[in-house]
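dumping this here before i forget
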Amino acid sequence: MYYPKFRTKRNNVPILSKDEIDSIAEKYLLDFNPKVLDTPQPIDEDRFLTEYLGLVQDFQYLTNSGIYLGMIVFNDSNKVIVYDQDTRRAEYIKAKAGTVIIDNSLLENGQEHRYRFTVIHEAGHWIFHRAKYSRDLSQVSWFDFGDILNIKCRPSIIDRNIKPVDQWNDNDTMEWQANYFASALLMPKSMVLKVCNDKEIKDYLTFMSFGNIDVYNELLIKRISYIFNVSKKAAKVRLCNLNIINTESNTNSMLSYNKKLLNNSIL
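structure:
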């Protein structure tokens, strides 16, 4: 199994660049399933989590409102809070270190993309942030427990940017790291570039977009979404992070384009 090495601050918060996370993600994939670095395709997120990383997967309602999508448990606990729909109240359950709890709402129809991203997001927390939160509980007083037992992740954290970078604290940094890792593992940089540089694909998208760069970008986003089985929003963010498309150019001209063509094109 691959074990990444990376720098950390004194408090064990990792110091990671985009390039470093991209490299770590592809090294994991090379060890987990080399085929996904040969032909662009979706990875099996559940196998990566359970069979490769050896984590335990559980499904619960984390709240009554869907405010949390996933949770990673860093230390054995008998006080993990979940929501019981039968009693309509919060309850405690037991969970061992290395348990990923996914909110049951992500098992509903239409939630596959968000489910896949959440699973790998939580895997990212385990890979990068275990040293920050896993402790010898015999050396920790009850008053110190606080947030060391688990991390809960909100939809707002997983689905969009948190806040301007210059306002980030350590928690914001770690959420960004888990987010970027999920994006890098689900859409490996080398495979995204392979799709984007494929002459046949480029010629097809150029023809379908009539030379309009904004339309071309929108079609490319849709293609990446389809190939890697991710949401169009996740695909767009990934392409922007890799400097393949520019978010500022993808604006008003799309509104006047024939939406029927976009919806019916076989990408």
